Amino acid sequence: MRIIIYTRNDCVQCHATKRAIESRGFTYELINLDLTPEAADELRALGFRQLPVVVTEQESWSGFRPDMINRLRNLATA
């Protein structure tokens, strides 16, 4: 399963999300908006206003969402 996390350097919720996803054994692609500012425009166009933004093939969300992170295991086996 492909997981993309949009983040910034000093984002507490971003760090918590990365740690939670790693602790469940998932790998992810990281897009840092401090290094790729044009990606912020894309996220805003999709309606996101908060970081981190997590994108999978099946769904996406923003903010630190342990409930959604826990659902990744179910999505991976679907």
Automatic annotation (TrEMBL):
GO terms for molecular function: electron transfer activity. Keywords: Disulfide bond, Electron transport, Redox-active center, Transport. CDD domains: NrdH (cd02976). The keyword Transport applies. Residues 3-59 form the Glutaredoxin domain. Pfam families: Glutaredoxin. PROSITE patterns: GLUTAREDOXIN_2 (PS51354). The keyword Transport applies. It comes from the Bacteria. GO terms for biological process: cell redox homeostasis. Electron transport system for the ribonucleotide reductase system NrdEF. Belongs to the glutaredoxin family. This is Glutaredoxin-like protein NrdH. It comes from Buttiauxella gaviniae ATCC 51604. The lineage of its organism: Bacteria, Pseudomonadati, Pseudomonadota, Gammaproteobacteria, Enterobacterales.
